Amino acid sequence: RLILITGGSGYIGAHTVDSFLRHGYRVRLAGRSESSCQQMLATHSEHRKLIDTTVVPDITALGAFDSAVQGVDGVVHLASPFFHGFKDVEKDILLPAINGTTEILESIKKHAPQVRRTVITSSIAAILDLSKGIRPGHIYNESQWNPITHESAIQNPAVAYAASKKLAEEAAWNFIETEKPNFSLATLQPMMVYGPPFPGSTSISNLGTSANDIYVLMNGSLTQAPTTRLPVYVDVRDVAEAHRLAYETEGAGRFALCAGNFTKGQVCRLLRESGLGLENRVPSEGLDAENDLQSYSVDSSKA
Ligand code: NDP
Hints:
Blueprint: E1 2-6, H1 11-22, E2 26-31, H2 34-43, E3 51-55, E4 74-77, H3 89-111, E5 117-121, E6 139-140, H4 150-155, H5 160-179, E7 184-190, E8 192-194, H6 209-215, E9 232-235, H7 236-248, E10 253-257, E11 260-261, H8 264-272, E12 297-298
Parallel strand pairs: 1-2, 1-4, 2-3, 4-5, 5-7, 6-12, 7-10, 8-9
Antiparallel strand pairs: 9-11
Helix pairs in contact: 1-7, 3-5
The structure holds NADPH dihydro-nicotinamide-adenine-dinucleotide phosphate.
The site of NADPH dihydro-nicotinamide-adenine-dinucleotide phosphate has 24 residues, from helix 1 and strand 8.
Protein backbone atom coordinates (compact mmCIF):
# COMPACT_ATOMS: atom_id res chain seq x y z
CA ARG A 1 0.00 0.00 0.00
CA LEU A 2 1.26 3.45 -0.93
CA ILE A 3 0.64 6.33 1.52
CA LEU A 4 1.16 10.01 0.72
CA ILE A 5 2.60 11.76 3.79
CA THR A 6 2.98 15.54 4.09
CA GLY A 7 5.06 17.17 6.84
CA GLY A 8 7.44 14.19 6.90
CA SER A 9 10.40 16.52 7.40
CA GLY A 10 9.03 17.67 10.77
CA TYR A 11 9.38 16.41 14.32
CA ILE A 12 6.24 14.25 14.40
CA GLY A 13 6.36 13.58 10.66
CA ALA A 14 9.76 11.83 10.74
CA HIS A 15 8.53 9.36 13.38
CA THR A 16 5.27 8.87 11.49
CA VAL A 17 7.06 8.09 8.23
CA ASP A 18 9.18 5.56 10.13
CA SER A 19 6.09 3.91 11.63
CA PHE A 20 4.54 3.35 8.20
CA LEU A 21 7.85 2.12 6.72
CA ARG A 22 8.47 -0.32 9.58
CA HIS A 23 5.04 -1.79 9.00
CA GLY A 24 5.78 -2.48 5.35
CA TYR A 25 3.97 0.41 3.70
CA ARG A 26 5.40 2.27 0.74
CA VAL A 27 5.36 6.01 1.31
CA ARG A 28 5.38 9.03 -0.96
CA LEU A 29 6.87 12.00 0.88
CA ALA A 30 5.72 15.46 -0.16
CA GLY A 31 8.33 18.11 0.66
CA ARG A 32 8.45 21.84 0.05
CA SER A 33 11.71 21.63 -1.91
CA GLU A 34 14.00 19.14 -3.58
CA SER A 35 16.51 19.55 -0.74
CA SER A 36 13.85 18.76 1.85
CA CYS A 37 12.98 15.60 -0.10
CA GLN A 38 16.66 14.60 -0.25
CA GLN A 39 16.98 15.11 3.51
CA MET A 40 13.94 12.88 4.15
CA LEU A 41 15.41 10.17 1.88
CA ALA A 42 18.68 10.35 3.82
CA THR A 43 16.88 10.09 7.17
CA HIS A 44 15.03 6.95 6.10
CA SER A 45 17.78 5.52 3.87
CA GLU A 46 17.36 2.10 5.46
CA HIS A 47 13.96 1.85 3.70
CA ARG A 48 15.04 3.64 0.49
CA LYS A 49 13.27 1.12 -1.78
CA LEU A 50 9.90 1.83 -0.16
CA ILE A 51 10.05 5.62 -0.63
CA ASP A 52 9.38 8.06 -3.41
CA THR A 53 9.22 11.83 -3.09
CA THR A 54 7.38 14.70 -4.68
CA VAL A 55 7.90 18.45 -4.40
CA VAL A 56 4.83 20.54 -3.50
CA PRO A 57 6.24 24.07 -3.33
CA ASP A 58 3.07 25.82 -2.17
CA ILE A 59 0.42 23.76 -0.36
CA THR A 60 -2.09 26.63 -0.65
CA ALA A 61 -1.99 26.75 -4.47
CA LEU A 62 -5.08 25.55 -6.33
CA GLY A 63 -4.55 21.91 -7.27
CA ALA A 64 -1.33 21.80 -5.18
CA PHE A 65 -1.58 18.06 -4.57
CA ASP A 66 -3.19 17.00 -7.89
CA SER A 67 -0.14 15.12 -9.02
CA ALA A 68 1.07 14.01 -5.54
CA VAL A 69 -2.10 12.03 -4.79
CA GLN A 70 -2.14 10.02 -7.99
CA GLY A 71 -1.90 6.29 -7.40
CA VAL A 72 -1.83 6.44 -3.59
CA ASP A 73 -4.04 4.28 -1.35
CA GLY A 74 -4.15 6.61 1.63
CA VAL A 75 -3.14 10.11 2.73
CA VAL A 76 -1.67 11.38 6.01
CA HIS A 77 -1.49 15.18 6.20
CA LEU A 78 0.74 16.64 8.92
CA ALA A 79 2.16 19.71 7.17
CA SER A 80 1.10 22.89 8.93
CA PRO A 81 3.04 25.89 10.26
CA PHE A 82 4.03 25.52 13.91
CA PHE A 83 6.50 28.28 14.83
CA HIS A 84 6.69 31.55 16.71
CA GLY A 85 7.75 34.89 15.30
CA PHE A 86 5.65 34.95 12.13
CA LYS A 87 5.03 38.27 10.39
CA ASP A 88 1.65 37.94 8.72
CA VAL A 89 -1.02 35.91 10.57
CA GLU A 90 -3.14 35.29 7.51
CA LYS A 91 -0.37 34.47 5.06
CA ASP A 92 2.10 32.69 7.35
CA ILE A 93 -0.24 30.69 9.60
CA LEU A 94 -3.94 30.63 8.75
CA LEU A 95 -3.77 30.13 4.97
CA PRO A 96 -1.24 27.30 4.91
CA ALA A 97 -3.11 25.47 7.68
CA ILE A 98 -6.61 25.90 6.27
CA ASN A 99 -6.04 25.95 2.51
CA GLY A 100 -3.30 23.33 2.76
CA THR A 101 -5.95 21.06 4.26
CA THR A 102 -8.76 21.84 1.83
CA GLU A 103 -6.44 21.61 -1.19
CA ILE A 104 -5.24 18.13 -0.29
CA LEU A 105 -8.83 16.95 0.23
CA GLU A 106 -9.88 18.46 -3.12
CA SER A 107 -7.00 16.78 -4.90
CA ILE A 108 -7.84 13.38 -3.38
CA LYS A 109 -11.47 13.70 -4.37
CA LYS A 110 -10.68 14.72 -7.94
CA HIS A 111 -7.61 12.64 -8.71
CA ALA A 112 -7.49 9.69 -6.30
CA PRO A 113 -10.94 8.09 -6.12
CA GLN A 114 -9.25 4.87 -4.92
CA VAL A 115 -8.34 6.51 -1.57
CA ARG A 116 -10.58 5.19 1.22
CA ARG A 117 -8.92 6.74 4.26
CA THR A 118 -7.31 10.08 5.11
CA VAL A 119 -5.70 11.10 8.41
CA ILE A 120 -5.13 14.74 9.36
CA THR A 121 -3.03 15.99 12.27
CA SER A 122 -5.11 18.50 14.15
CA SER A 123 -4.20 19.57 17.69
CA ILE A 124 -5.19 20.00 21.30
CA ALA A 125 -5.56 23.60 20.10
CA ALA A 126 -8.69 22.55 18.22
CA ILE A 127 -10.25 21.32 21.48
CA LEU A 128 -9.21 23.67 24.31
CA ASP A 129 -11.24 26.76 25.07
CA LEU A 130 -8.28 29.06 25.72
CA SER A 131 -10.50 31.80 27.15
CA LYS A 132 -11.26 29.52 30.13
CA GLY A 133 -7.61 29.25 31.24
CA ILE A 134 -6.42 26.14 33.07
CA ARG A 135 -9.97 25.26 34.16
CA PRO A 136 -9.31 23.15 37.29
CA GLY A 137 -11.21 19.86 37.25
CA HIS A 138 -12.53 20.19 33.70
CA ILE A 139 -12.10 17.10 31.53
CA TYR A 140 -11.65 17.73 27.82
CA ASN A 141 -12.14 15.08 25.17
CA GLU A 142 -12.53 15.00 21.40
CA SER A 143 -16.22 15.90 21.55
CA GLN A 144 -15.29 19.50 22.44
CA TRP A 145 -14.23 22.29 20.09
CA ASN A 146 -12.23 25.44 20.65
CA PRO A 147 -14.77 28.25 19.97
CA ILE A 148 -12.06 30.56 18.56
CA THR A 149 -12.83 32.43 15.33
CA HIS A 150 -10.87 33.62 12.29
CA GLU A 151 -11.51 37.24 13.30
CA SER A 152 -10.09 36.77 16.80
CA ALA A 153 -6.92 35.26 15.34
CA ILE A 154 -6.39 38.30 13.13
CA GLN A 155 -6.88 40.60 16.13
CA ASN A 156 -4.68 38.60 18.48
CA PRO A 157 -1.68 36.87 16.83
CA ALA A 158 -0.93 35.06 20.13
CA VAL A 159 -3.86 32.75 19.41
CA ALA A 160 -3.28 32.48 15.66
CA TYR A 161 -1.70 29.03 15.79
CA ALA A 162 -4.58 27.64 17.87
CA ALA A 163 -7.08 29.19 15.47
CA SER A 164 -5.23 27.79 12.46
CA LYS A 165 -5.56 24.25 13.79
CA LYS A 166 -9.20 24.60 14.80
CA LEU A 167 -10.23 26.26 11.52
CA ALA A 168 -8.25 23.79 9.40
CA GLU A 169 -9.86 20.81 11.11
CA GLU A 170 -13.29 22.38 10.90
CA ALA A 171 -12.75 22.98 7.17
CA ALA A 172 -11.85 19.31 6.77
CA TRP A 173 -15.04 18.08 8.43
CA ASN A 174 -17.10 20.59 6.42
CA PHE A 175 -15.49 19.22 3.26
CA ILE A 176 -16.50 15.67 4.21
CA GLU A 177 -20.06 16.77 4.93
CA THR A 178 -20.61 18.81 1.78
CA GLU A 179 -18.48 16.92 -0.78
CA LYS A 180 -19.19 13.36 0.41
CA PRO A 181 -15.93 11.95 -0.99
CA ASN A 182 -15.06 8.25 -1.30
CA PHE A 183 -12.84 8.34 1.77
CA SER A 184 -13.42 8.51 5.52
CA LEU A 185 -11.52 10.95 7.72
CA ALA A 186 -9.73 10.58 11.04
CA THR A 187 -8.34 13.66 12.77
CA LEU A 188 -5.86 13.45 15.64
CA GLN A 189 -5.61 15.99 18.46
CA PRO A 190 -2.23 15.48 20.15
CA MET A 191 -1.42 17.40 23.34
CA MET A 192 2.06 18.95 23.65
CA VAL A 193 4.24 16.40 21.88
CA TYR A 194 7.57 15.59 23.53
CA GLY A 195 10.23 12.91 23.28
CA PRO A 196 13.29 12.26 21.14
CA PRO A 197 13.58 13.67 17.63
CA PHE A 198 13.85 10.87 15.05
CA PRO A 199 17.55 9.99 14.61
CA GLY A 200 19.14 11.84 11.71
CA SER A 201 16.06 13.96 11.02
CA THR A 202 17.13 17.26 12.52
CA SER A 203 19.69 19.30 14.43
CA ILE A 204 19.68 21.06 17.79
CA SER A 205 19.04 24.40 16.06
CA ASN A 206 15.96 23.05 14.29
CA LEU A 207 14.20 20.86 16.86
CA GLY A 208 10.69 22.14 16.24
CA THR A 209 8.58 24.19 18.63
CA SER A 210 7.55 21.53 21.13
CA ALA A 211 10.83 19.59 21.40
CA ASN A 212 12.55 22.93 21.88
CA ASP A 213 10.26 23.54 24.88
CA ILE A 214 12.10 20.71 26.64
CA TYR A 215 15.54 21.50 25.21
CA VAL A 216 15.50 24.98 26.80
CA LEU A 217 15.14 23.26 30.17
CA MET A 218 18.51 21.55 29.67
CA ASN A 219 20.67 23.92 27.64
CA GLY A 220 21.74 26.15 30.51
CA SER A 221 19.65 29.14 29.43
CA LEU A 222 17.29 29.15 32.45
CA THR A 223 17.80 29.24 36.21
CA GLN A 224 14.11 29.14 37.12
CA ALA A 225 11.58 26.51 36.00
CA PRO A 226 9.18 28.27 33.59
CA THR A 227 5.42 28.43 34.03
CA THR A 228 3.58 25.46 32.52
CA ARG A 229 1.15 26.96 30.01
CA LEU A 230 -0.08 23.70 28.49
CA PRO A 231 0.09 21.03 31.22
CA VAL A 232 -0.79 17.98 29.08
CA TYR A 233 1.60 15.88 27.01
CA VAL A 234 1.99 12.86 24.77
CA ASP A 235 5.09 11.02 23.50
CA VAL A 236 6.06 11.66 19.89
CA ARG A 237 6.54 7.93 19.24
CA ASP A 238 2.98 7.23 20.38
CA VAL A 239 1.69 10.05 18.18
CA ALA A 240 3.46 8.49 15.21
CA GLU A 241 1.93 5.07 15.91
CA ALA A 242 -1.45 6.75 16.32
CA HIS A 243 -1.22 8.13 12.78
CA ARG A 244 -0.67 4.65 11.37
CA LEU A 245 -3.34 3.07 13.56
CA ALA A 246 -5.80 5.81 12.62
CA TYR A 247 -5.14 4.99 8.97
CA GLU A 248 -5.78 1.31 9.66
CA THR A 249 -8.96 1.95 11.67
CA GLU A 250 -12.32 2.19 9.99
CA GLY A 251 -14.91 4.84 10.65
CA ALA A 252 -14.67 8.60 10.82
CA GLY A 253 -13.72 10.41 13.95
CA ARG A 254 -11.59 12.63 16.12
CA PHE A 255 -9.03 11.17 18.52
CA ALA A 256 -7.51 13.17 21.40
CA LEU A 257 -3.99 11.90 22.19
CA CYS A 258 -2.90 12.48 25.77
CA ALA A 259 -0.59 10.59 28.14
CA GLY A 260 -1.23 12.74 31.21
CA ASN A 261 -0.54 16.01 32.99
CA PHE A 262 2.84 17.45 33.89
CA THR A 263 4.59 20.60 35.05
CA LYS A 264 7.84 22.08 33.76
CA GLY A 265 9.15 21.82 37.34
CA GLN A 266 8.63 18.04 37.24
CA VAL A 267 10.51 17.82 33.95
CA CYS A 268 13.41 19.82 35.43
CA ARG A 269 13.51 17.52 38.41
CA LEU A 270 13.55 14.41 36.19
CA LEU A 271 16.36 15.91 34.11
CA ARG A 272 18.36 16.78 37.22
CA GLU A 273 17.92 13.25 38.57
CA SER A 274 18.51 11.52 35.22
CA GLY A 275 22.15 10.66 35.93
CA LEU A 276 23.12 12.31 32.64
CA GLY A 277 25.18 15.02 34.35
CA LEU A 278 22.76 17.81 33.44
CA GLU A 279 22.59 19.38 36.92
CA ASN A 280 24.55 22.47 35.91
CA ARG A 281 22.34 23.21 32.94
CA VAL A 282 18.83 22.54 34.32
CA PRO A 283 16.95 25.11 36.44
CA SER A 284 17.18 24.47 40.16
CA GLU A 285 14.73 27.16 41.29
CA GLY A 286 10.95 27.02 41.29
CA LEU A 287 10.77 23.26 40.70
CA ASP A 288 8.00 22.83 43.25
CA ALA A 289 6.17 26.06 42.50
CA GLU A 290 3.40 24.32 40.57
CA ASN A 291 3.22 21.11 42.60
CA ASP A 292 -0.40 21.82 43.40
CA LEU A 293 -1.25 22.98 39.87
CA GLN A 294 -4.94 22.30 39.48
CA SER A 295 -5.79 22.27 35.79
CA TYR A 296 -7.94 20.58 33.21
CA SER A 297 -7.11 17.04 32.14
CA VAL A 298 -7.82 15.23 28.89
CA ASP A 299 -9.68 11.94 28.48
CA SER A 300 -7.86 10.02 25.76
CA SER A 301 -9.66 6.71 26.26
CA LYS A 302 -11.17 6.66 22.77
CA ALA A 303 -7.67 6.73 21.16
P1 NDP B 1 7.41 20.76 12.77
O1 NDP B 1 7.55 22.23 12.68
O2 NDP B 1 8.56 19.96 13.22
O3 NDP B 1 6.97 20.20 11.35
C1 NDP B 1 6.04 20.86 10.56
C2 NDP B 1 5.99 20.21 9.19
O4 NDP B 1 5.04 20.93 8.40
C3 NDP B 1 7.31 20.25 8.45
O5 NDP B 1 7.41 19.12 7.63
C4 NDP B 1 7.17 21.51 7.61
O6 NDP B 1 7.93 21.49 6.41
C5 NDP B 1 5.70 21.46 7.26
N1 NDP B 1 5.19 22.80 7.00
C6 NDP B 1 5.07 23.82 7.88
N2 NDP B 1 4.58 24.91 7.28
C7 NDP B 1 4.41 24.57 5.98
C8 NDP B 1 3.95 25.28 4.84
N3 NDP B 1 3.56 26.57 4.90
N4 NDP B 1 3.93 24.64 3.65
C9 NDP B 1 4.33 23.35 3.57
N5 NDP B 1 4.77 22.63 4.61
C10 NDP B 1 4.81 23.24 5.80
O7 NDP B 1 6.12 20.52 13.67
P2 NDP B 1 5.54 19.19 14.33
O8 NDP B 1 6.14 17.99 13.74
O9 NDP B 1 5.59 19.39 15.78
O10 NDP B 1 4.00 19.31 13.87
C11 NDP B 1 3.44 18.44 12.89
C12 NDP B 1 1.95 18.58 12.95
O11 NDP B 1 1.48 18.25 14.26
C13 NDP B 1 1.44 20.01 12.68
O12 NDP B 1 0.21 19.90 11.97
C14 NDP B 1 1.19 20.56 14.08
O13 NDP B 1 0.22 21.58 14.07
C15 NDP B 1 0.68 19.31 14.78
N6 NDP B 1 0.79 19.31 16.24
C16 NDP B 1 2.01 19.40 16.87
C17 NDP B 1 2.08 19.35 18.26
C18 NDP B 1 3.39 19.40 18.97
O14 NDP B 1 3.40 19.57 20.21
N7 NDP B 1 4.52 19.25 18.29
C19 NDP B 1 0.87 19.24 19.09
C20 NDP B 1 -0.36 19.13 18.33
C21 NDP B 1 -0.38 19.16 16.96
P3 NDP B 1 9.39 22.16 6.31
O15 NDP B 1 10.33 21.12 6.85
O16 NDP B 1 9.56 22.40 4.85
O17 NDP B 1 9.35 23.41 7.12
